[in-house]
Amino acid sequence: MVERRAVSSRGRSSFICGPSPVSLTSREIALVVDELQPLVGAFVQKVYLPEPRTVIFDLRQPGKSRLLLVCAETGRTRLHISSDRPPSPQTPFAFQGLLRAELTGKALERIEAFEGERAVRLGFRGKTGALTLVAELTGRHGNLFLLE
Q1: Cα–Cα dist 26/28, whole Å
Q2: Which of 68, 70, 90, 133 fits a disulfide with 57 by CB distance 3.0 to 4.6 angstroms?
Q3: How many Cβ atoms from other residues are within 10 Å of residue 55's Cβ?
Q4: At 18, is the secondary structure helix, strand, or coil?
Q5: 3-state secondary structure of 97
């Protein structure tokens, strides 16, 4: 996969995956979720937000680390393993601080696709309880929600 950066209209760096941004279908999301199941049990080491609705989890498993990208950006929603961590924005997004505070050290307990929908649920569990990140990967109006 080719990765490149572009500058958005706000002058911020934009992390774009692939030669032409395309959103995933509900069927493709379900297939990707199946392929991501080996990540269940991994611990969150760090959370990055290179863009307002793009989260990259640095997940640790015995002997290796993996970067899981969840992108709900307009027109290029996706979910996949990433080989590189994108550059951080000059000004961090507030949601990054919340995700780092709440999810660092928690285990990824489940990754599920909503049947027939372009949405996924990532469940995390730790000493302080369980949290769920819901990613609406709907293309035009994608969004991320952290739920108790």
Answers
A1: 5
A2: 68
A3: 25
A4: coil
A5: helix
What the block records as the tokens of 91 is 């000004």
- At 78, list the tokens: 């996706």
Residues for the chain: how many in total? Answer: 148
Asked if 124 contacts 50 with a C-beta cutoff of 8 angstroms, the reply is no
**CA–CA separation, 90 and 98 (whole Å):** 18
Question: What is the Cα–Cα distance from 22 to 18, expressed in whole angstroms?
Answer: 9
- Mean pLDDT for the stretch of residues 76-104: 92
Q: What is the pTM of this model?
A: 0.84
Tokens 């609705």 belong to residue: 53
The predicted pLDDT at position 66 comes to: 97
How far apart, in whole angstroms, are the C-alpha atoms of residue 52 and residue 50? 7
Rounded Cα–Cα distance for residues 129 and 148 (Å) = 9
Mean pLDDT of 70-77: 91
Domains for the chain: give ranges and CATH numbers. 22-147 (2.30.310.10)
Angle at 61 between CA 122 and CA 131, to 5 degrees: 25
